[in-house]
Design brief:
single chain; alpha+beta; Glutaredoxin; four-stranded mixed β-sheet; globular
Length: 98
């Protein structure tokens, strides 16, 4: 979890996407997240976290539904939502925390 701590303490907003390759909604979000990453450029970062490969982190953050999205800034979770989201909504939210 030390890597996780390093990631979430960034000065830019960090979007975490908890997903599974077995989940259809998660797969549909990949294109949305590419658009978000492209739109944010150096002003934000998108990180995908496979719940199958990171069960301890997923459990610690109480990820129950997929996909689950979280925005962290300066070590603090500032937004969290489960389920599909559109790129424009996520981009707007991330820009609020730049």
């Amino acid at each position: 979890m030390s890597k996780f701590g390093d990631i979430i303490y960034a000065k830019i907003p960090i979007l975490l996407n908890f997903y599974s390759d077995l989940d259809e909604s998660s797969a549909e979000m990949h294109a949305v997240l590419r658009d978000v990453a492209a739109a944010m450029g150096d002003h934000g970062k998108v990180i995908k976290i496979d719940v199958e490969k990171n069960p301890k982190l997923s459990e610690a953050l109480r990820v129950r539904r997929l996909p689950t999205l979280m925005i962290y800034k300066g070590g603090e979770m500032v937004w969290r939502q489960s389920g599909d989201q559109d790129a424009n909504t996520i981009i707007s939210l991330m820009k609020d925390f730049v």
